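ok new one. same drill as before - structure tokens go in, u give me an amino acid for every spot. 227 of them this time. try not to just spam alanines like last time pls lmao
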């Protein structure tokens, strides 16, 4: 730890990004109790299978998995909130790193060539200053060593929040929101799309459809999934 960091810690004591209690650990953004409480979705469970079922009959993906269960008020929800709205970039990398470690052990990267973060619209990216999906990719790649292609997809429309719309409106809203970057040849590549949270799946579905149209095999991974 640098002198400057120690001084900062004295003035603004570090707190756990999930429970807000004082944080002693230097290397993690959350406390040991919250790490134990991480709502991990175990492979080959009903919950894990429900994730790929969200895409059934909509888009022909190879696989879809998530690391954590997203529920109102749980550790996953608090971490994602801090990552997206409180400028806590380190949480994205840390969550990616944790997910990378477990998914590599399960052989989930054996048949993947590239990782593609779901892009944000340029305007939103400028506002936030970072794409949380890219930070997650960076953390994951530490274990799996899969290259990240950040600009493979381009978000063309700045969609407003998806949460308050009905299913049809969401569908209309997400058709044609991504296009492929013509400068990158993805034909025949086995790609894994990465995002922070899977809710209805409509955004990921739109992104996957564009990649499939352009000759890719597509898998999906998100840090958390809501049911
Ligand atoms: Zn905590």
């Amino acid at each position: 730890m640098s002198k400057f960091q120690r001084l900062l810690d004295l003035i603004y004591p570090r707190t756990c990004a999930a429970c807000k209690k004082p944080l002693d650990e230097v290397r993690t953004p959350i406390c040991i109790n919250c790490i134990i409480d991480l709502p991990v979705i175990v492979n080959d469970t009903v919950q894990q299978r429900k994730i790929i079922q969200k895409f059934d009959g909509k888009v022909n993906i190879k696989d879809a998995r998530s690391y954590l269960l997203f529920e109102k008020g749980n550790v996953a929800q608090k971490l994602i909130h801090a990552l997206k709205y409180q400028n806590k970039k380190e949480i994205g990398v840390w969550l990616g790193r944790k997910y990378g470690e477990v998914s590599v052990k399960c052989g989930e990267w054996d048949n993947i060539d590239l990782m593609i973060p779901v892009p944000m619209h340029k305007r939103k990216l400028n506002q936030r200053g970072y794409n949380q999906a890219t930070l997650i990719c960076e953390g994951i790649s530490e274990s799996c060593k899969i290259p990240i292609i950040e600009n493979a997809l381009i978000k063309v429309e700045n969609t407003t929040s998806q949460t308050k719309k009905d299913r049809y409106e969401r569908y209309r809203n997400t058709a044609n929101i991504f296009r492929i970057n013509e400068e990158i040849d993805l034909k025949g590549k086995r790609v894994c799309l990465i995002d922070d949270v899977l809710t209805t799946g409509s955004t990921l579905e739109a992104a996957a459809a564009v990649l499939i149209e352009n000759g890719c095999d597509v898998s999906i991974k998100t840090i958390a999934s809501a049911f």
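Residues 89-105 form the longest helix (17 residues). and btw The mean pLDDT is 91.
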